[in-house]
Write a structure and sequence with these properties.
single chain; five-stranded parallel beta sheet; binds 5-phosphoarabinonic acid; five-stranded mixed beta sheet; 10 strands; alpha/beta; Rossmann fold
Length: about 425
């Protein structure tokens, strides 16, 4: 369960969020009466997911684990970030390098760098591999290019028939270029539900198939999301998620227009990337929106720390801290004590990390940065599922509070039109 503390924001709020406004935003979201309401299928997803498809995801993951040493996951934005975030947080950012009995996982098609793609091909070597191509529209340029390349690699290695049995397509139920190709070739297919947008899709096959391939228990992940949903429904506007949404908006109204998500685990880095997409795409429109940024602490205290402490005062910060570490590592004693560290001898690194978090929080508050603190018990499937649902729900409420449609992304078309024109795409 997500626990939240606003002790570090109280002294900054000259006006508390208006409860009537917050209730209205909450009601708009749960009653699906607001702008973009046809993209709110994610609200009930932890309860109402397709159980037959869920079982197929587990079977496909078991097959990939048995016949492949690597899985190439092709996708971008909402069709990429959630899976990578969960795998890095629950397994490790060093997942591929660590000993394990699940396949290495490479993410491709999330940019247009030929160098990055070549690295993946080199790392694959001559090992057996499968591909999970993920695109709701089926027409996004970055993954489409990468998929062409990996499809041809598979065909060269296994022949047309063999390649078909190693390609898993996650796409729209009925429409799009990828759906047409998947039907024609007979790829095993999974669905991005019509009413779930890319950035809210991590708990569909979009995220769940790669996550399951990494050996993560997707039942427990869904259970965590389900528990958080129940908690939010029970506590309504007093829930941690709604309070978080209301507080960040109230702070923004007082000029704190940039929110930094700060976590004290390097494995959280891609969760922050996922969070930035979720909030940036949902709220940054119509000239509005809190700019989402992130730092990795304590490393970034030695780079961004100066600015956060002392730069322009338009920042608010949200800390994410896991109370119990998985690994037990303590500082060894040293007879000579030349580094002066013996005062920490025997102390767990998790204890020192927590003191660093408390110290940073106090420093930033005294420097004029309001800090909201999110606490989770430990890095495990249930807690991560809860955190995903917490951030998604809060984002919906926060978007409605600021008066935008949190479920569209009209702004992302501008660069595409220019790029297609420059590349000579017919019709541009
Ligand atoms: O959140 C979104 O809608 C976007 O980030 C999309 O997920 C991203 O552009 C990829 O789109 P698609 O899945 O259609 O290839």
């Amino acid at each position: 369960m997500v626990n939240i503390s606003f002790e570090g924001t109280e002294s900054f709020l000259s006006r508390q969020p208006d409860k009537k406004d917050v209730q209205a935003a909450f009601d708009t979201l749960v009653n699906r009466t607001g702008a973009g309401n046809d993209f709110t299928g994610w609200i009930d997803l932890p309860e109402n997911y397709d159980k037959e498809e869920f079982a197929r995801i587990k079977q496909a993951a078991a097959r990939i684990c048995s016949d492949s040493k690597a899985l190439v996951v092709v996708g971008i934005g909402g069709s990429y970030l959630g899976a990578r975030a969960v795998i890095e947080l629950l397994r490790s950012p060093n997942y591929n390098a660590l000993p394990k009995n699940t396949p290495d996982i490479y993410f491709a098609g999330n940019g247009i760098s030929g160098d990055a793609l070549t690295d993946i091909i080199t790392m694959l070597g001559d090992r057996d591999f499968s591909v999970n191509v993920i695109s709701k529209s089926g027409t996004t340029t970055e993954p489409a290019i990468a998929f062409r390349i990996f499809k041809q690699l598979l065909e060269r290695k296994y022949g047309a028939e063999g390649a078909r049995s190693r390609i898993y397509a996650t796409t729209d139920r009925a429409r799009g270029a990828l759906k047409t190709l998947a039907d024609r070739e007979g790829y095993e297919s999974f669905v991005v539900p019509d009413d779930v947008g890319g950035r809210y899709s991590v708990l569909t096959a979009v995220g769940l198939l790669p996550i399951a391939c990494a050996g993560i228990d997707i039942d427990r992940l869904m259970q965590g999301a389900r528990d958080e949903r129940t908690e939010i429904r029970f506590r309504g506007i007093e829930s941690a998620a709604v309070q978080y949404a209301a507080t960040r908006q109230a702070l923004a109204q007082q000029g704190k227009s940039i929110e930094i998500l700060a976590a004290f685990e390097p494995a959280f880095r891609f969760m922050a990337e996922w969070w930035k997409q979720l909030y940036g795409e949902s709220e940054g429109k119509d000239g509005k929106g809190i700019f989402p940024a992130s730092v990795d602490l304590t490393p970034d205290l030695h780079s961004m720390g100066q600015y956060i402490q002392d730069g322009q005062r338009m920042l608010q910060e949200t800390f994410v801290f896991f109370s119990h570490a998985s690994a037990s590592v303590s500082v060894p004693a040293d007879e000579e004590n030349l580094d002066g560290l013996n005062y920490l001898a025997g102390r767990e690194m998790s204890y020192i990390n927590e003191k660093a978090m408390e110290a940073t929080m106090a420093a930033h508050i005294s420097g004029g940065v309001p800090v909201t603190q999110i606490r989770l018990a430990r890095i495990c499937e249930e807690e991560v599922g809860a955190l995903i649902y917490f951030f998604e729900f809060a984002c919906g409420v926060s978007g409605y509070l600021s008066g935008v449609n949190p479920f569209n992304q009209p702004g992302v078309e501008a660069y595409k039109k220019n790029m297609f024109h420059l590349l000579g795409k017919p019709g541009y």
